[in-house]
Amino acid sequence: MTSRKLWALLLVLAGAALPAGWVHGQQPLPKPTGYVNDFAGILSPDDEAAITRVIDEVRAKSGGEMVVVTLPTLLGRTADRLALELGRGWRVGRSGQPGDPARNTGLIFLVVPKETSATGRGALRIETGLGTNTFITAAEAGAFADDFVIPAFRQVDYGQGIRTGVTALARQYAQRFGFELSGDIPPLPERRPPRGYNLNGILVPLIILAGLISVFGRGGPRGRGRRRNFPI
Predict the structure, then answer these.
(1) 97-103 contacts at long range (C-beta below 8 A, 24 or more positions apart)
(2) φ and ψ of 127, to 5 deg
């Protein structure tokens, strides 16, 4: 066996000996510690206790499982991929027979604070199970993040953001399964009104665009070095 083939064989064997994902720069998933997993250390004991109470009540009254995960980094993945792998790897969401309304009604609430992120940008992902999608769509989860979570994150108050976000999601479970949240449930801030259509804001850009097309669509004014001033 030549030395080149020997080195190739050694590299293959070394790669096989590494934990899954390390070859591609991915770090292994952590083991769950409960329904609130603060690996980034951004929650106070009071925050963690308040979040846990809401999660426990939802699970007791509906069977739905909400799992909060904070991590210092994305472990070499995108936020959506990491949240999906956590949900699958940790088996979040109760199994059940077809027709069971609580089947697969889990979600992952993933947070990576910007202070520890490798890129200096934080990450937030709410990944819902197949059953949860029936009453919390991807668009609704994004709206909850924008309205209830991100405003607090911008003030570097991760505890408040997660508490408020979990409460908003818990109310969706309560509405779907017909129960009321009890105990010390924090009030939600008033949501932003939906954006309406501003006809002037739509028509004016269209008129300008039509004028540009009429001028430049035939090649535009001729001259050396002349370029289009809008993306093709």
Answers:
(1) 101/131, 101/176, 101/177, 102/62, 102/63, 102/64, 102/131, 102/177, 103/131
(2) -100, 120
Residue 169's Cβ-count burial label (10 Å; 0-12, 13-18, 19+) is: buried
2-30 confidence digits (pLDDT tens): 554 444 444 444 444 444 444 457 899 99
Q: Which residue has the tokens 């991100």?
A: 150
Alpha carbon separation from 97 to 93, 101, 222 (Å, rounded): 13, 9, 71
Average pLDDT over residues 80-95: 95
pLDDT score, position 20:
44
Is the Cα torsion angle 40, 121, 55, 28 positive or negative in sign?
A: negative
Residue 135 neighbours by CB under 8 Å, 6+ apart: 172, 173, 175, 176
Do residues 67 and 108 lie in contact, with contact meaning Cβ atoms separated by under 8 Å?
Answer: yes
Whole-structure pTM value: 0.72
Spell out the alpha helix ranges (H) of 18-94.
45-62, 79-89
